[in-house]
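Thread: quick sanity check before group meeting

JM: Hey all, I'm pulling together slides for Thursday and realized we never actually wrote out the predicted structure for the chain we discussed last week. Dropping the sequence here so it's in one place. If anyone has concerns about the input, flag it before I start.
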Amino acid sequence: MPVPVPHQRAVVLPHQAGPVDGACADTARVADAPGAGDTTAQGLSAPATAVGRPSAPLGSHGFQKPEQPQPAAQPDPAGQTPAHQGLTLLLIGEDPNSHVPDMWDWAGRKVRLRTARNLTEAGRLLTDDVHCILLDLPPRAPGDRTERDPGRGDTPDDELGMLRDVLRMATSHAVLVLTYETDAERAADAVRVGAQDYLFRDELDGAVLSRAVRYAVERKRADLAQRQLTESRMLAQENARLERGLLPTPLLDGSNLRFAACYRPGRSRALLGGDFYDTVRTPDGTVHAMIGDVCGHGPDEAALGVELRIAWRALTFAGLSGDELLATLQKVLEHERADDEIFATLCTVDISADGRRAGLCLAGHPAPLLAQAGQPPQLLPYEFGGPALGLLPHARWPRRQVELGGSWSLMMYTDGLIEGRIGQGNQRLGQEGMTELVSRQMAAGLTGEELLEASVREVRDLNGGELTDDVAVLLLDRRQGVS
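JM (edit): ok, ran it. Output follows.
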């Protein structure tokens, strides 16, 4: 079969479907250099035929024969031909002598047409600027089952094999099928397989084809947008389930301490941030609690925070505590972080089985807030703390003994709670402001999660909006009279 020769397309359109007579001379100019299969890239156009004037003769497939082409459009005075911003159609069909009418896009610009005889040629011409594919199905020959043509892509037992190959090759392009009116069943099957629409040769004219191409492109865009939206929703749901699964579940069976936590990631539409916390009770009755903060706010920091929390839980159950535990966590951080500049702050507390005393270790983290019975909340001393994890290779973290008493509340938090702004200036809430705020909430009788939620809400209101940093707050209470 001879190699198809590019043909100029001329359309006879009603004036409501596009420009008529010489009105489209400027819009038909194209900047692209002549290329294989791109018929309008040569900048040729034919005079449109007014309504009622004799149309051009029809080709072998019922398409309109082009009229005598006009000379190519000349470059503008600046030496540049205007770039074509309209639609581009790729015709795939075996007949090199077939012609299609000219088409117009929404703005009245001529649609460029490229022709390919088989899938091999179509693959070379299917560039990013192609918006729609018109697949010219050959006439059905009942009982005819020839060998597979690699160029066509159909199989002996699948009359729509070539369409399936086109859909696999052009997943983001609109596809129209062209066939005979007597082959309506196969045309409907083509839509079922994945084509946007089908056209009959006997009913084809410029207006019909222009409208079909425009609608097919828009339907494909809508389908892709809906698919992307669905995939985004599914991904968001999977991420939410994953993040919820990574949030800690306190292990305090057998303890008389009450636990409450409040967590607010700084990332938009996220459930997990770089802050992390956990609480467990070991077989000897000691309650261990920790809270930490990985510098940064992205998913990598959130993942690292989860790794550190899980490592802390495993090391705690293995019997490590204090300086030994923090030194091991620093090794985990050094091996897992993506950048040597990544560090993490940490606060660990181990409360004795009788609940009256605790050991405290600080690694660059704000000191907890302790409220004992009959006394206002006070910050525990910070001066004895060590550096953040990941800053110094041979750092030490001393453990300090703290007397808690018979009834108390211990609040551990990350810096997101104290770095919110106050009013319109740059002044921060700070630890003193947070202590005063929590003291007022406790005086109002708030406890547990209600206390934490009210405190975080007031900090957010003082900031004038949502806090940009991650916020994690953990509260442990021991009731009055419990020995």
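AS: nice. Helices lie at 119-125, 161-169, 184-193, 206-246, 299-317, 322-336, 430-443, 448-463. The CA atoms of residues 14 and 52 lie 9 Å apart.
JM: adding both to the slides.
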